[in-house]
Design goal:
The chain is mostly helical. The protein contains two helices and no strands. Helix 1 runs antiparallel to helix 2 (41-65). It is elongated and about 55 Å long.
């Protein structure tokens, strides 16, 4: 029999997972900026765009999963 999680437990696990996406996205973007100056603009911009795409996926996942209250 599988154990069920409460909404609070599910939210805490989701925060841990999404935090990793956030770090990876920013690291990719920083690496891209470094490569733009160190190696070539094209190579660096590919890494930068990969980081942006990952962060956009992060935003889509948050908006889809959780209600944003203003």
């Amino acid at each position: 029999m599988k154990k069920r999680l409460t909404e609070q437990q599910e939210f805490e696990i989701m925060k841990l997972v999404l935090d990793k996406f956030l770090w990876i996205g920013f690291i990719l973007m920083l690496f891209g900026v470094y490569q733009m100056f160190a190696a070539s603009f094209l190579f660096g911009s590919i890494w930068f765009i990969a980081g942006v795409i990952l962060l956009i996926l992060f935003i889509i996942l948050i908006v889809r999963e959780y209600e944003v209250i203003k």
